[in-house]
Amino acid sequence: MATIKDVAKLAGVGLGTASRVINDSGYVSEETKKKVLEAINKLGYVPNETARAFVTQDNKTVALFLPSIHHAFFSELAYYIEDELDKKGYKMILCNSSGQKEKELKYINMLKQNKVSGIIGISYNPIENEINHSMPIVLVDRHIGEIPYVSSDNYGGGKMALQVLKETGCNHVAYMGTYSKTIFTEVEKRLKGFEDAAKENGINYTLYIEEDPIKDQTTFLHTFLNNYKNIDGVFVENDMMALELVQLAQDRKISIPEELSIIGYDGIQTYAMLRPKLSTIRQPVELMGRSLVDLLIKKLNGEQVTPEIHPVQFLKGETTR
Amino acid sequence: MATIKDVAKLAGVGLGTASRVINDSGYVSEETKKKVLEAINKLGYVPNETARAFVTQDNKTVALFLPSIHHAFFSELAYYIEDELDKKGYKMILCNSSGQKEKELKYINMLKQNKVSGIIGISYNPIENEINHSMPIVLVDRHIGEIPYVSSDNYGGGKMALQVLKETGCNHVAYMGTYSKTIFTEVEKRLKGFEDAAKENGINYTLYIEEDPIKDQTTFLHTFLNNYKNIDGVFVENDMMALELVQLAQDRKISIPEELSIIGYDGIQTYAMLRPKLSTIRQPVELMGRSLVDLLIKKLNGEQVTPEIHPVQFLKGETTR
DNA sequence: GTGAAAGCGCTAACAA
DNA sequence: TTGTTAGCGCTTTCAC
């Protein structure tokens, strides 16, 4: 393995000069540059990134916190984040952190010690006291102090869902999902948007929510179907839950969308082939993934960054009229 | 940030001694050890892993090659791999490599230069000439020379599927899936097992296969339904495809499983809530993920390792009689 | 058992 | 514009 020393020697220049051309920094004459480049080529020299990371205190690696990669929406998002990071020359370490605050803390500590360059976090753990806005951290769907975040237009999505239900003739609508006592997340705005729109439109609505995490989603759904027989339109917090609701309702011979309209949130591709095709509010996953990376890199460069909220879109499927 | 120097000074010992107790290597008297440990504690010293990686040429990081994390089976597998790696003190870099050989090569080069400790690969790229069995690499479902691999019992699974179809009264069965001209993968054994079992049982079978990757899965499935109306039982290469087949068949009012039995392969959890519940051959994902890590670490320790084939299980759903 | 010292490959400051 | 040098924090000889 050739080192920078070998390159310098072969090119007949000093160590510093070699380093300068390799990093394209500082003044180097065209002529010298050429000599060095030749040497690099001849030797097949590749910089030792570990050594570099050691001296620059930056290893070009970002940690992605995810409750669990084993969840369709997160894995789609992770896909685009990795793709964009790779394009920008960063590696991505995955950290499945669901309910494991310590695991996240480990990486936050690594960040403090410059052992990861930055963090992109989809985190439902209580980490607000461990991080602050001067660190290169970007969050998804969550507000912690001044830390920049990216989210879809949850509020608008909530309104949109109600609008659709109303326009397709639903009279008794409900919001189904979760809430959290401990952390604030953008997701709650789906409810808020739904609620506000219902009020504006003078429509009666029901909130069917349980504290996150729901222990038994199936039971949660069955209970709903048992107790809210008059409801003819539901906006469900996410596609996975919406999809299970569709299944359970069909088991009960409730015809969808005639008797019950269902709208999800996320627009997960993985489920796109299923019948009935779910009507849903689609988050622009790819866009979100790439802006997360953009924001983080700006942060890394010391630029000022502000939260980004991306527009959503209603995807008509077969679960609404 | 306290360094090992600070620790040594505070403990009143030499640098080397401090290092020895930190790494629990070499001879250190109990007494000295205690002093050093105290100093570490008082200073809140944490070893600088980057520096360590630099000198030891090992950064305790393994790269996971995945065609795409955005695929249910892979993301489940990735989940367990990450979990196990974390337990063993390794970080996991994710590399979505579908069709991007260069991306894999990048990490293979990093491996050669000791910038990643090892590689776990689910790769469909032609990388056989770039790697060899002396490298710390473990593959999933693929044989490349002597490189160790982990897979489920694809052959047994294929036999099992046929057995089930036969026992539930199917007379005209088919295998549906893909093949590759360029790479050999364990997946083909699903077909082989199915075929062998059909022959043993004296059952007529049809192979409905197309070269991987299938451009348009939906068309592929429609064509099947158009042309093979006499078939009453299909074993499909993976759950995703099986699931879409179920949907399309139902659209055509083909009753499942009465007119057509369908068995998938994988046992993906993400789809577990869907109706009709898919009958499938379940791979022990968790076990596979964890053994991949085990094998890799053994390899890293210079131990001899051999391929591991894990048993599969038939999961009866509602798409078989 | 222990301390001193070399050196991993690189960047950056400094002097020339 | 260039070469020299210090030093990043750690592990690992090698004497003692």
Keywords:
homodimer, 321 residues, alpha/beta, 434 Repressor (Amino-terminal Domain), Rossmann fold, 3 domains, six-stranded parallel β-sheet, six-stranded mixed β-sheet, 12 strands, elongated, DNA-binding
| Cα Rg of chain A | 25 Å
CATH topology of the largest domain in chain A: Rossmann fold
The CATH architecture of the largest domain in chain A is 3-Layer(aba) Sandwich
Query: How many helix segments of chain A?
Result: 11
Apparent shape of chain A: elongated
Derived structural class of chain A: alpha/beta
User: Which two chains form the greatest contact, residue counts included?
Assistant: A-B, 48 and 48 residues
Beta-strand percent range of chain A:
15-25%
**What strand order characterises the main sheet of chain A?**
2-1-3-4-5-11
Query: Helical content of chain A, roughly?
Result: 40-55%
**Order of SSEs of chain A:** HHHHEHEHEEEHEHEHEHEEHEE
Task: Describe the overall structure.
The structure is a homodimer. Chain A starts with a helix and ends in a 6-residue tail after the last strand. In chain A, β8 (about 235), α10 and β9 (about 260-265) form a beta-alpha-beta unit. Chain A has a 6-stranded parallel beta sheet, with helices on both faces. In chain A, α1 (about 5-10) packs across α2, α2 (about 15-25) crosses α3 and α5 (about 70-85) crosses α11 (about 285-300). Chain A is α/β, with parallel strands linked by helices and about 325 residues long. Chain A folds into 3 domains: about 5-45, Orthogonal Bundle (434 Repressor (Amino-terminal Domain)), CATH 1.10.260.40; about 60-150 and about 285-305, 3-Layer(aba) Sandwich (Rossmann fold), CATH 3.40.50; about 155-285, Response regulator (Rossmann fold), CATH 3.40.50.2300. Chain A is elongated. Chain A has helices spanning about 5-10, 15-25, 30-45, 50-55, 70-85, 100-110, 155-165, 190-200, 215-225, 240-250, 285-300; strands spanning about 60-65, 90-95, 120, 135-140, 150, 175-180, 205-210, 235, 260-265, 280, 310, 315. Chains A and B meet through α4, α5, β2, α6 and α10 of A and α4, α5, β2, α6 and α10 of B. Chain A binds a DNA duplex (16 and 16 nucleotides) through α1, α2 and α4.
